[in-house]
Structure to design on (238 residues):
């Protein structure tokens, strides 16, 4: 009887010691590449927001923050035309492309900007024509890594 | 019968440009080899294995699970 009770105490003490050691253990770093059995070892941090184009604004001027102060879709022949592209999310490398077209067919200009955003960002594209823009309807298509994201139409009037 | 085709406009003198509030991508990159882990890569570049999250967050498109990275994957290494 005494022996059994002694063994019981010993088990309880040993169990407590093991638990205490277990509590002090630090969270393990991520598993080595190719191993799948430790997937749950480290809880995944909150996923950063995926990169996306949130808004495209057109205007005749931008501020230091690259945003258009007075949005418009109607321009004069001598205006510089700005497209301010607001994006959200982070990415190590994204290429934004602005393709400007006239009357749905003729390419006016194409420009791109590669960025590594760590949060909300604004990227501006602009174009000017010293000899004046032909009157008519224009369009700017914004692509992300070659995939069309959004299109904005505008018009040049006399 | 009149020709309905309009002559193309001349855009040869169009000037343009772009800029962004976002930084340009860092030039450093690393291709995963067998036996790598994010903490091992962080140790290599930053001297601190605990900074593995920095690499993970900069490569969310590539890394679905920080415990599972594969040989051949190329990661951007952000500045410390």
């Amino acid at each position: 009887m005494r022996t059994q009770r002694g063994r019981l105490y010993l088990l309880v003490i040993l169990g407590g010691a093991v638990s205490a050691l277990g509590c002090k253990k630090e969270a393990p770093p991520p598993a080595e590449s190719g191993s799948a059995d430790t997937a749950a070892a480290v809880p995944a941090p909150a996923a950063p927001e995926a990169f996306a184009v949130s808004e495209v604004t057109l205007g005749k001027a931008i501020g230091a923050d690259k945003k258009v102060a007075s949005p418009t879709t109607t321009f004069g022949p001598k205006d510089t035309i700005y497209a301010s592209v607001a994006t959200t999310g982070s990415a190590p490398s994204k290429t934004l492309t602005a393709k400007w077209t006239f009357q749905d067919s003729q390419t006016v200009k194409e420009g791109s900007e590669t960025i590594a955003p760590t949060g909300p960002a604004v990227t501006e594209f602009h174009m000017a024509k010293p000899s004046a823009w032909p009157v008519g309807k224009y369009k700017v298509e914004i692509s992300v890594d070659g995939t069309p994201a959004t299109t904005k139409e505008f018009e040049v009037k006399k | 019968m009149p020709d309905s085709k309009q002559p193309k406009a001349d855009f040869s003198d169009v000037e343009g440009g772009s800029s962004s509030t976002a930084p340009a991508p860092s030039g450093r990159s690393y291709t995963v080899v067998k036996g790598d882990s994010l903490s091992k890569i962080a140790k290599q570049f930053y001297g601190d294995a605990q900074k593995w999250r920095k690499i993970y967050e900069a490569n969310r498109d590539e890394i679905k699970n920080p415990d599972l990275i594969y040989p051949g994957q190329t990661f951007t290494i952000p500045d410390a």
Summary: Chain B touches chain A through 48 residues (CB under 8 Å). DSSP finds two helices and three strands in chain B. Residues 29-76 of chain B form a domain with the Membrane-bound Lytic Murein Transglycosylase D; Chain A fold (CATH 3.10.350.10).
